[in-house]
C-alpha cells in the first residue's frame, strides 16, 4: 500500500516534470529558432558588408554578367586566370561547400578538394581575416541566388601551371595567419590595419612584385600593378600617395567619394572606390584613414626624386611648347592656374599624382581620359576626354612635361618614347 502511494506520487511527479519540460521545450523552441534566424540574418547582412570591403564581386563577375558567377579574365605575366563561380549553385558554384571548406579557401588558399589555389586570388591578404568574418562572408554568399555557369579553365603558361611550383611558391611567400592586433596601438588603428592588410587587400596592387609575382613587404611602398599598365603609388611616402600631411577628413573624403580638392582616384583606384571603399561605415573609414596616415611615420621625406638632364634653354623651350598645348586642350577644365574646379575637375597644381617619379598614370590619364568613381558623394562625375587620337606622342610628352613643371610643380620631363610604352594594357 505504502509502495503504491509512493508509486502514485512518483508517477504524478514524473508526469508533472515531463509536462514542465515539454511546456518548456514548446515555449523555447520557436524562440530559439527565431533567435537563430535573427542571428543568421545579422551575419548575412554583416557578411554582405564585408564582401563589399573585400570587393569579391569585382573579380568574380564579368562586365554585365551575373554577380559572383565568375568568368572574369585576369591577365598576368603568368597567363590568364579565369575567376570561378562562387554563387551557391551545387554543380558549378560553391553550393556544396560548408563553412570549413570556405575557411580553407580564404585562410589557407586551398580549394574544397585540397587543390592549391593561385595567389591571383588574394588569399595572401585574406588569410588575415578572422574566422568569424569569414563565416559571415560565407553566410552571405550562400544566401545569394544560385547561378548555373561553368567558366573556362585558366590559361597559364608553362611552368607556372605546375602544382609543385605553386607549392614551392607558397613555402617561400605565403604566410598564413589571422591579423594580430598591436597592443601598443588604439583599437581604431588596429581595425584600420586589419581592413587594409586583410579584406581591403590594398597590398595586392600597392606593392612591388618580384619575378614570381610575390610582394616582398607589407609596407605598401608602391609598384607597377601586375597585368595592368598602371602604377599604384606608395602609401607610405608623402611624395606619392602617403597621407601624412593630410587631415583625416580629407583622407575619408578621398576613400568614400573618390575626389578631393587635391586628388582624384583614377583608373583601377576609381574602380576600388566605386565598388568597395565608398561603402565603408563611418567608423571603419575613420579607422582606415588613421592607419593610412600612420604609414608615413617612417617616411624620410626624400625630395631627390627629380632628375633633370636638360639644359635650361631646351627645358624652357619644351615647357613653352607644352604650355601652348595645355592652353588649347586642357585649360578649359583644369584652369590657367592649374587649380581645376573643386569636386569637378581635379587640380593639377600641387597634385602628387602629377609630379610622382613615375609619369605612367599621368600619361595614361591624358591618353585614355577617364571618369572618377561614381559614388553617393559624387553621383555624376565629370569625365575627361581621351587624347590618344588627337595628340601625337611628342605632343602628349610636351603637355605632360608642362603640367609636371608649371605652377610650382617640379618633376622629370617625359619623352615621346615613354608615351608610346604607356599604351595598351587593361583599364
Ligand atoms: C583580384 C581578384 C580576386 C578577388 C578580389 C577575389 N577573388 Fe576569389 N578568386 C580569384 C581567382 C583568380 C580564383 C581562382 C584561383 C585558382 O583557381 O587557383 C579565385 C578563387 C576563389 C575561391 C575558390 C573557388 C574554388 O572553386 O576553389 C573562392 C571561395 C573565392 N575565390 C572567394 C572569394 C571571396 C570570398 C572574395 C572576397 C573576400 C574573393 N574571392 C575575392 C580572384 C579573386
Ligand atoms: C586594383 C589595384 C588597387 C587596389 C586593390 C588598391 N589600389 Fe589604391 N591605387 C591604385 C592605383 C593604380 C592608384 C593610382 C591612381 C590614382 O592616383 O588614383 C591608386 C591610388 C591610391 C591612392 C592615392 C590617390 C590619389 O590620387 O592621391 C590612395 C590613397 C590609395 N590608392 C589607397 C588605397 C587603399 C587604402 C587601398 C585598399 C583599401 C587601395 N588603394 C587598393 C590601385 C589600387
Ligand atoms: C572636359 C574637361 C577636361 C579636359 C579638356 C581635360 N581634362 Fe584632365 N581631367 C578631367 C577630369 C574630370 C579628370 C578626372 C578623371 C579621372 O581621374 O579619370 C581629369 C584628370 C586628369 C588627370 C589625372 C589627375 C589625377 O590626379 O589623377 C590629368 C593628369 C589630367 N586630367 C591632365 C589633363 C591634360 C594634360 C589635359 C589636356 C591635354 C586635360 N587633362 C584635359 C577633365 C578634363
TrEMBL record:
rRNA processing among keywords: no
Binding site for heme c 1: 56, 59-60
MF-aspect GO terms: electron transfer activity; heme binding; iron ion binding; oxidoreductase activity, acting on CH-OH group of donors
Binding sites annotated in the UniProt record for heme c 3: 330, 333-334
Names of the cofactor(s): heme c
Binding residues annotated for heme c 2, in chain numbering: 202, 205-206
Protein keywords: Heme, Iron, Metal-binding
Free-text cofactor note: Binds 3 heme c groups covalently per subunit.
InterPro entries membership: Cyt_c-like_dom, Cyt_c-like_dom_sf, Cytochrome_c-type_DH, Membr-bd_ADH_cyt_c
Name of a matching Pfam family: Cytochrom_C
Record bears the keyword S-adenosyl-L-methionine: no
Gene Ontology CC terms: membrane
Cytochrome c domain segment(s): 42-145, 187-296, 317-407
Protein name stated in the entry: Cytochrome c, mono-and diheme variants
Species this protein is from: Nitrosomonas ureae
Amino acid at each position: 500500500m505504502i509502495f503504491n502511494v509512493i508509486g502514485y506520487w512518483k508517477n504524478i511527479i514524473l508526469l508533472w516534470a515531463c509536462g514542465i519540460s515539454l511546456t518548456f521545450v514548446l515555449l523555447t523552441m520557436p524562440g530559439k529558432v527565431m533567435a537563430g534566424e535573427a542571428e543568421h540574418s545579422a551575419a548575412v547582412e554583416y557578411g554582405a558588408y564585408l564582401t563589399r570591403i573585400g570587393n569579391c564581386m569585382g573579380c568574380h563577375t564579368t562586365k554585365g554578367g551575373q554577380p559572383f558567377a565568375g568568368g572574369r579574365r585576369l591577365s598576368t605575366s603568368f597567363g590568364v586566370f579565369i575567376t570561378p563561380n562562387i554563387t551557391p549553385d551545387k554543380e558549378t558554384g560553391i553550393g556544396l561547400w560548408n563553412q570549413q571548406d570556405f575557411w580553407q579557401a580564404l585562410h589557407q588558399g586551398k580549394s574544397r578538394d585540397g587543390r592549391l589555389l593561385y595567389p591571383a586570388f588574394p588569399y595572401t591578404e585574406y588569410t588575415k581575416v578572422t574566422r568569424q568574418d569569414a563565416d559571415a562572408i560565407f553566410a552571405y554568399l550562400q544566401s545569394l541566388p544560385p547561378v548555373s555557369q561553368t567558366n573556362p579553365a585558366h590559361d597559364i603558361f608553362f611552368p607556372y601551371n605546375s602544382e609543385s611550383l605553386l607549392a614551392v611558391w607558397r613555402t617561400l611567400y605565403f604566410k598564413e595567419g589571422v591579423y594580430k592586433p598591436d597592443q601598443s596601438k588604439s583599437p581604431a588603428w588596429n581595425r584600420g590595419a586589419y581592413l587594409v592588410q586583410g579584406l581591403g587587400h590594398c597590398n595586392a596592387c600597392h606593392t612591388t612584385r618580384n619575378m614570381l609575382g610575390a610582394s616582398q613587404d607589407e609596407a605598401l611602398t608602391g609598384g607597377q600593378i601586375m597585368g595592368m599598365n598602371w602604377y599604384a603609388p606608395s602609401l607610405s611616402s608623402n611624395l606619392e600617395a602617403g597621407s601624412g600631411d593630410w587631415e583625416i577628413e580629407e583622407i575619408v573624403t578621398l576613400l568614400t567619394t573618390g575626389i578631393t580638392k587635391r586628388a582624384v582616384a583614377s583608373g583601377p583606384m576609381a574602380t576600388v572606390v566605386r565598388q568597395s571603399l565608398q561603402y565603408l561605415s563611418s567608423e571603419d573609414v575613420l579607422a582606415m584613414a588613421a592607419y593610412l596616415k600612420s604609414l608615413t611615420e617612417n617616411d624620410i621625406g626624400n625630395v631627390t626624386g627629380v632628375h633633370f638632364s636638360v639644359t635650361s634653354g631646351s627645358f624652357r623651350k619644351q615647357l613653352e611648347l607644352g604650355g601652348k598645348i595645355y592652353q588649347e586642350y586642357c585649360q578649359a577644365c583644369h584652369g590657367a592656374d592649374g587649380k581645376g574646379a573643386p569636386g569637378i575637375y581635379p587640380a593639377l597644381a600641387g597634385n602628387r599624382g602629377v609630379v610622382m617619379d613615375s609619369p605612367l598614370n599621368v600619361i595614361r590619364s591624358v591618353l585614355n581620359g577617364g571618369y572618377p568613381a561614381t559614388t553617393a558623394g559624387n553621383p555624376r562625375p565629370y569625365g575627361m576626354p581621351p587624347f590618344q587620337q588627337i595628340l601625337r606622342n611628342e605632343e602628349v610628352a610636351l603637355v605632360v612635361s608642362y603640367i609636371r613643371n608649371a605652377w610650382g610643380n617640379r618633376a622629370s620631363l617625359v619623352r615621346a618614347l615613354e608615351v608610346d610604352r604607356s599604351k595598351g594594357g587593361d583599364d
